[in-house]
């Protein structure tokens, strides 16, 4: 109970749980949409999914500035690969979040927002995911090379998982996140079930990383 209270007392923790709820509703709704007698349930799940998404946008207000601050820090990293990938990823995330703030204003009826802004947000979100994937792969590669130098003998798959556990978890999470913006931009099939399942997996992994910081790559 204490852990749950501490987890939900933080805005990021609540955002992670709302994201799990959002994609869980998406998956369950998709699985029931072709079943007769569940129309009311599907409609209610769609409402919960929509409200969860809007609430998450509210939780993210101001996070664009945090991403800019993170970019200011990573631009001074000694490792050129980490310096480049992380800085560009943070800048793209800052742009995505800035537009996301504007989209939230549209969701709550403060301003009228053109649909093109949603596509712009998806482009920046997709770019940040792809660049972060490069960072994860690089971190895993560095870990595998270190294991080789230390003379540790194991299969490729074992070395892949244990070279850098945090980067491996993050890699899987980002791979699962890829279809969310990619499907909106036409780079991935618009399949609600598949996107929902992958989004749910990435949401659970993100919540797990927040609860266990050792599985969040540093820097």
UniProtKB/TrEMBL annotation:
Biological process annotations from GO: peroxisome fission
Superkingdom, according to UniProt? Eukaryota
Tell me which positions the record assigns to the signal sequence. Answer: none
Name the keywords, alphabetized. Answer: Membrane, Peroxisome, Peroxisome biogenesis
Q: Can you name a GO cellular component term?
A: peroxisomal membrane
* PANTHER family, sorted: PEROXIN 11, PEROXISOMAL BIOGENESIS FACTOR 11
Please provide an example of a Pfam family that matches this protein in its UniProt record.
PEX11
Location of the protein in the cell: Peroxisome membrane
Gene encoding this chain?
Answer: LOC100180565
Protein's name in the database = Peroxisomal membrane protein 11A-like
